[in-house]
Task: structure prediction
Amino acid sequence: MRRNRAFLATVTATVTALALAACGSGSDSGGGAAGGETAASGGDLGLVSDGVLTVATEGTYRPFTFHDGSGDLVGYDVEVAEAVAEKLGLEVRFQETQWDAIFAGLDAGRFDTIANQVSITPEREEKYVFTQPYTVSRGVIVVREDDTSISSFEDLEGKVTAQSLTSNWRALAEESGAQVQGVEGWAQAVALLEQQRVDATINDSLTFLDYVNENPDAPIKVAAETEETSQSAFVVTPEREALAEAIDGALDELRAEGVLTELSEKYFGEDVSQ
Result:
């Protein structure tokens, strides 16, 4: 892997851009959680109003937050938030919000926190308080399962990769010396790869894991990954730091009990929580 400053800067910019997603419906969906093992109700600690943890999420970002065939709000982030609320002895209410408005809603106090793969970045840390991460991901090079010619980012020199022209993955591919064929997204990139019309595609490891979890016979594999990681966490405004600390305690318990690993494997086929 290239280790010069330009390369590392590109990787950092790439892996911290993962929180951008499609727009949500803007509707509300509620889910109840009975009292958990930790006594941390809103009334006792003044963390939330009326013992209800209000969580903003898009509801359109599979597999993190989306609606299943019956219309229920489900997903990795949704179930992690539900498990946290149960640990804190709180009810949980999800407020579906478009990504472009989600931080404004947090600033205005319309909800207590966000569960929507919010990446921890230096810019956001200047304004908000993050919990410990519950998702860790890397950028990965994806190739056909029988391809042995690519095992590092240096090997992309002269190869053709399929990338969305507006994504940071395109910049990483070009930095690595690849020729880029523009596509609309992951689905088209994988189709071109399987048809042997391109040599590789670069994307987030979570995107790859979700795809192979849903398509276990897909003839693709990860050839290399970035050293830099993207970490996603719950986020609150500075005056709600006590809530972030309580969520950290809940996440510690869920991690120790294997719940985060179980939820990771359910949605991705392996542990993405650390």
